[in-house]
Amino acid sequence: MRASTQPTILFVGTSLTAGYGLDDPDDAYPEVIARRIDSLGLNYRVVNAGVSGETSAGALRRMSWLMRAPVDVFVLETGANDGLRGLSVDSMKANIQAIFDSVRVAHPNAKLVLLGMEAPPNMGPSYTRAFHATFPALAAANHAAFVPFLLAGVAGVDSLNQGDGIHPNVRGAELVADNVWRVLSGVLETPAAVDPHRAPG
User: Fold this and answer.
1) Catalytic site residue 132?
2) How far apart are CA 55 and CA 94, in angstroms?
3) Mapping DSSP to helix (H, G, I), strand (E, B) and coil, where does residue 103 land?
4) Handedness of CA 137, 111, 28, 52 (dihedral sign)
5) Could you say which of 23, 143, 164, 197 is catalytic?
6) Whether 167 is catalytic
7) What's the pTM value of the predicted model, to 2 decimals?
8) Which of 15, 72, 107, 132 is catalytic?
9) What is the pLDDT along the chain (201 residues), one digit of tens a residue?
10) 3-state secondary structure labels for all residues of 112-163
């Protein structure tokens, strides 16, 4: 079956990845990217494993189950709910590192992509600075491709968000997909990420 030989891009994330609030889940940014991949004739299967309300600790708890399936490119979007709840930045950092470690154990050849997030300003400057610094540091330490801020150009723009002011609307999700694609497209051109014949990790 063709799907079994296609390299897989796995998106793990929160409501931002799941497409919370959108009338059609196919408008979530991973599905927008999947359509772009198809239109370009690239041989990838996109899996959206976004879960609304999930923290980095919740994402870590899902990893043993998620890693049972093939993964060639692993895209991680987490931390938004940690920031909204003011959870420990050190704990979030440890959770993200443990997530990447679990990918490496299960799928050593998988390419890693980290999507950066920002904490809301009402958490205070010390917290927001530490939160901001966590993502580029983790990307560098894990040789992961890095999107500095998933919601760049979308956050705070009323016309690009739903009524809650947090979750992108259809147009906002398209722009989020653009932010991710600028980095992900380079990862997909890497030969190690596109070999469907290698043994599973």
Assistant:
1) no
2) 12
3) helix
4) negative
5) 164
6) yes
7) 0.91
8) 15
9) 334 579 999 999 999 999 999 999 999 999 999 999 999 999 999 999 999 999 999 999 999 999 999 999 999 999 999 999 999 999 999 999 999 999 999 999 999 999 999 999 999 999 999 999 999 999 999 999 999 999 999 999 999 999 999 999 999 999 999 999 999 999 996 444 444 334 333
10) EEEECCCCCHHHCHHHHHHHHHHHHHHHHHCCCEEECCCCCCCCCCHHHECC
- Report d(CA 20, CA 2) in Å as an integer: 30
DSSP 34-99: HHHHHHTT---EEEEEE-TT--HHHHHHHHHHHTTS--SEEEE---HHHHHHT--HHHHHHHHHHH
State yes or no: is 15 an active-site residue. yes
